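I'll show one example:
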Amino acid sequence: MTEHAGLPDKRQVAASFSRAAASYDSVAELQRSVGHELLTRLPAGFAPTDWLDLGSGTGYFSRALAERFTPATGLAVDIAEGMLSHARAAGGAAHYIAGDAEQLPLRHASCGLVFSSLALQWCEHFDAVLQEAFRVLRPGGVFAFASLCAGTLQELRDSWQAVDSQVHVNRFRHFDTYQQLCANSGLELVSLDRLPHVLHYPDVRSLTHELKALGAHNLNPGRPGGLTGRARLKGMLDAYEAFRQPAGLPATYQAVYGVLRKPAESLAQ
């Protein structure tokens, strides 16, 4: 299956999240919620002797994994050097390594658990991510991931589309793409589903400020290269007001949760 084209350049993603390292935790409500939900989906009684936090960011879930799976050895991998530097100071993992989820700098069959929360949506080739997870997992090991799919920030996307046709909001692959790629991965599917998370904001500026503080502002090819005109900006703001609810302006994130297991009898590493 052809992967979704037009995702951001990884160098831009790494630079953006490195710059956001200091501000990330202050605005990471969604990230915390999604990651904790993913932890609840790990198989009952599962106790790996070592784990990988893939796309570890500021290390919040590295610390959660270390607490949950003591005395297992932890490894944190992220593409953003700035995030690794920030995380290393707080501890949690035994080692911190700069690396790409599509080409992990790890030995074959070296991990019992690969855990990744809200990082893999930035990878253009999710089939390569699955291949690498298969490669580095030991037989019987688990790959647990949370990502984002199409429909995320749809309110913001629709509001921009009311005024122009440019790319203002990050693109994400469709849920059925996740389904097919996971089915073809060679990993056993334990669970795979989609769950919306809705946050509310007093105004659009609060939302866009948070996206920038997270390093998750618009990074897509085709995004506007200069300042947006006042008339178009006002048109977008007016269009977004149509979505307002008593709690504020909604921003919907479509989270994908997947738990897969490497077959215990697998010989192909």
